Amino acid sequence: MSQPIPRPAGVPILGNIFDVNPSNPWASLNALAEKHGEIFQLKILGKTMVFVAGMELAEEMCDEKRFRKFVGGPIVEIRAAVHDSLFTAYDGEESWGIAHRIMAPYLQPDALADLVGPMRDTALELMAVWKVSTGKIVPWRDLARLDLETITLTLMGRKLGGLSGEENPMIQAMEDSTSEAMRRPTRPGILNWLLYGGKFKASNARMREYAESLVRYRHDNPTEKHDLLWGLLNDKDPQTGRGLTASQVIDEIVTMPIGSSTSPCLLAMAMLFLQRNPTVMAKARKEIEAVVGGGEIRHEHISQLRYVDAVISETLRLASPAPGFNIEPIPSEDKTPVTLGGGRYQVAHDQAMIIILSGVNRDPVAFDDPAEFRPERWMGGDEGGRGSGSGTGRGFASGGVMLGFGAWLCWLFC
């Protein structure tokens, strides 16, 4: 027999509206996860939301035969900027499959080999900027510059020159749009329209202008190089024979830096964890010296840097830059309630749920001493994205993170 899902007491009519700080909702949700454990629910203005913070339940919900990605909340809001793009498409929208099949060949690990040189050289350019800097270095902000510079150069064929000097407006536009998309579901719609709609539209427009400028540049400077932008503009989906419309090309160009915008936070936190853990730093240095030596980091080195990769994985566990993701049951005709945890819990057939990664990744049932930074946990392990929305750019993203981190380590040690 199932047991009730825990829920804070709340207040009449409004429910748990005061249990979530609209200015920082994930801090509130992380605190609730620590208090209530593997699962809890909130009811706000009559709407039920279920949150999962335990490893066992999270793994169960990653079963693609029973559950699927849920497009709701902030993801729906960001559709105002990128419409039915790779990470915002609803389940069953044909546009996702078309874009995925066109883009995937340019983003797989094999394609990374041709991009390693520009990626590495761009990272080393930032290291050179840091070396001569006389002011305070803010790593995550500079790494955001690096991320945008790398994506624009390697996938879109244009060098922005934005590692120093004035920051490219795309960076602030992404920050403004994504942070506002997080907050909008927590406010009444009338407030979003009256008080916040103008700024949200403006930041979305700036992001699309970034993409439009890249298309204009390509038209003015044609190339035979078959990079991702070439594919977006010219390739046809092998299954349907259809290409992307002009608007869809802009959608997917904007999607790339948004999807990669968590990488700077990941790299900055990995640097911080190394600084705080001298033993881990020494092991990483030993591996870098053994694999790379005194030369440049190359594509073949990436798979050999197993301990450095484990440092990245452990950083993801303790400081995941993506706080969670949304899941819903696959619809059933009989609308039978869905059971979780071997029948311990029961939710409605159409109940959307949010997996809180901070809770899952610190679950003491899954991890010994969960608060301890210990990369050795991941030696020989298998981790990564889940589901249909996770794989398109995973090879590019993970390779880019490893190259950026490896270049920084080489700069420190070699």
Automatic annotation (TrEMBL):
Gene3D superfamilies: Cytochrome P450. Pfam families: p450 (PF00067). InterPro entries: Cyt_P450 (IPR001128), Cyt_P450_E_grp-I (IPR002401), Cyt_P450_sf (IPR036396). Residues 373-385 have a biased composition (Basic and acidic residues). Residues 373-392 are annotated as: Disordered. GO terms for molecular function: heme binding; iron ion binding; monooxygenase activity; oxidoreductase activity, acting on paired donors, with incorporation or reduction of molecular oxygen. Keywords: Iron, Metal-binding, Oxidoreductase. This is Bifunctional P450/NADPH-P450 reductase. It comes from Ophiocordyceps camponoti-floridani.
